[in-house]
Amino acid sequence: MAAYALTPPAQAHLDIVGTEEKFPVRRIYCIGKNYVAHIREMNADERDPPVIFMKPSDAIVKNGGEIPYPVLTNNFHYECELVVALKSGGYNIPEAEASRHIFGYAIGLDMTRRDHQAEALAKGLPWEITKAFDHSAPVGPITRAEECGILRSGHVRLKVNGEVRQDADISLMIWNVDEIIAKLSEQHRLMPGDIIMTGTPAGVGSVVTGDVLDCSMDGLQPMQVRIGPKAA
């Protein structure tokens, strides 16, 4: 058994509905530009393929948690979306076989430093500063695919302080879940424990300290998180 010079960090994990077992999170893959209405509100090109980026697994915030308002931003945005958890993977997964690799689903938030995203896009810079910061990946409990079925439709909804800000059906995604898994596996060897944030619909906006975000999707467990004071 390896002897570490430092105490290894705790394994990032998500709760699973109906059991005490935990889902270990390996990688967080994220898909951008996957709803036409969101592309239009961001003034992007509708013909472009989705953008693929990643977040660190320790950016996970679980249901009921608090997200410290991050440093280095004055324009902190929510993006509510369907999250897909994988039980298996590989390279070059055929689209027709993609759903066989799905463990389950959850609702999640791709939290974004929007001011830095605009700068990164303008200068062609990496997205880590805008997408991969601490506490940037709130994700709710996972519902197993055996319980909810393979999801092809269902409304993703976000409320901020009780007011609906986002509400769209996942059937409107430009690239559906099977296509996303197949495309990702062309570039990465997908593995058990990977999760995929599948993109956000229109209605993104800013939040401030004290705001309460309620996320839901038909057939899945809801998630609530609160925006806390500025990170020290």
UniProtKB/TrEMBL annotation:
<protein>
    <submittedName>
        <fullName>FAA hydrolase family protein</fullName>
    </submittedName>
</protein>
<keyword id="KW-0378">Hydrolase</keyword>
<keyword id="KW-0479">Metal-binding</keyword>
<dbReference type="Pfam" id="PF01557">
    <property type="entry name" value="FAA_hydrolase"/>
</dbReference>
<dbReference type="InterPro" id="IPR036663">
    <property type="entry name" value="Fumarylacetoacetase_C_sf"/>
</dbReference>
<dbReference type="InterPro" id="IPR011234">
    <property type="entry name" value="Fumarylacetoacetase-like_C"/>
</dbReference>
<dbReference type="GO" id="GO:0046872">
    <property type="term" value="F:metal ion binding"/>
</dbReference>
<feature type="domain" description="Fumarylacetoacetase-like C-terminal">
    <location>
        <begin position="28"/>
        <end position="227"/>
    </location>
</feature>
<dbReference type="GO" id="GO:0018773">
    <property type="term" value="F:acetylpyruvate hydrolase activity"/>
</dbReference>
